[in-house]
Amino acid sequence: MLFPLLRLTRPANLITAVADVLAGMAIAGYLTLPDAAPAPVGWLCLATVGLYGGGVVFNDVFDAKLDAVERPERPIPSGRVSLMAATTLGAILLAVGVVAAFMVNPLSGWLAVATGVAALVYNRFSKHHALIGPINMGLCRGLNLLLGVSVLPDQVQPWAWLGAVPVLYIGAITAISQGEVHGGNTRTLRVAGLLYGAVIAIIAAIAQSRGQLGTALPFLVIFGYYIFVPLWQAVREPVGRNIGMAVKAGVLSLIVMNAAWVASFASFPFALLVMCLLPLSRLLARLFAVT
After folding, report:
1. Distance, CA of 68 to CA of 258 (rounded, Å)
2. Tell me, what CATH number does 72's domain have?
3. What's the structural domain count of the chain?
4. Dist CA 200 CA 260 (whole Å)
5. pTM higher than 0.85, yes or no?
């Protein structure tokens, strides 16, 4: 019973959510504070695990009937997890995420509430909409990044606009994923590639403005390699398997993107620490589905 429940939470993806929060903390300047307390880091990491885990569990709850046709091997349609058990798990995880965030400060708590609501709206209403769905999913990641920034509440307003960058990136991945089952079209894939390029350019420009381009560049190069190689394969042959690989690479590469954020706002050693999450995420991706 435990393994199917873990499958519902997408453990490999949970690691990427933690990387989002760490990147947000770097943007706020918290990681370089000499007297930074570890407790807020722990609470916000727990919060994002709860929020992301709860969100993806409800993804399968709302898609149970569709998955029974398209993906019968998933835990709910296969009967290994009941719909009630999945709903309970999702609700508990979301509650844990919100409570953990309020343990840091009220702004973190309300950002957690907004993230949870955005995830439920995506799962229930906007997921299958070609335009609104990707934007909605990107908003979840943007709010998650700001959740990390909120460790220092006064830094949220000046850096709130950076929440648009994950919207572009995750919006691109979500648009690609809409062709994962039946195949996609090259136009969507090429547009996603342009959005990928825009994200890299924005991070590079910010790093340059902060005099940190040399520190961030290695991570940006690795990031570009990880996302563009599978995307190009999908463009050449837009079948379900190639698209699935492109989506998987895009999700896991969030850790590298977040390492680039940390390199741009903190230091190379801190960025390397975030990169250390990548092998763990890739290992979990061998055991549990990413999409």
Report:
1. 35
2. 1.10.357.140
3. 1
4. 9
5. yes
CB 100 within 8 A of CB 113: no
Alpha carbons 202 and 162: distance in angstroms, whole number = 9
SS3 sequence of the chain:
CHHHHHHHHCHHHHHHHHHHHHHHHHHHCHHHCCCCCHHHHHHHHHHHHHHHHHHHHHHHHHCHHHHHHHCCCCCCCCCCCCHHHHHHHHHHHHHHHHHHHHCCCHHHHHHHHHHHHHHHHHHHHHCCCCCHHHHHHHHHHHHHHHHHHCCCHHHHHHHHHHHHHHHHHHHHHHHHHCCCCCCCCHHHHHHHHHHHHHHHHHHHHHHHHCCCHHHHHHHHHHHHHHHHHHHHHHHHCCCHHHHHHHHHHHHHCHHHHHHHHHHHHCCHHHHHHHHCHHHHHHHHHHHCCCC
- How far lies 80's CA from each of 60, 68, 105, 122, in Å? 13, 13, 38, 25
Full residue range of the structural domain in which residue 103 is found: 2-287
**Side chain identity at 160, as an amino acid letter?**
A
The one-letter amino acid code at 161 reads: W
- Reference 226, options 264, 195, 256, 192; nearest CA is 256
Query: Is the distance from CB of 64 to CB of 8 less than 8 angstroms?
Result: no
Question: pLDDT by residue for the chain (291 residues), tens digit each?
Answer: 688 999 999 999 999 999 999 999 999 999 999 999 999 999 999 999 999 999 999 999 999 998 899 889 999 999 999 999 999 999 999 999 999 999 999 999 999 999 999 999 999 999 888 889 889 999 999 999 999 999 999 999 999 999 999 999 998 998 888 766 556 678 889 999 999 999 999 999 999 999 999 999 999 999 999 999 999 999 999 888 899 899 999 999 999 999 999 999 999 999 999 999 999 999 999 999 887
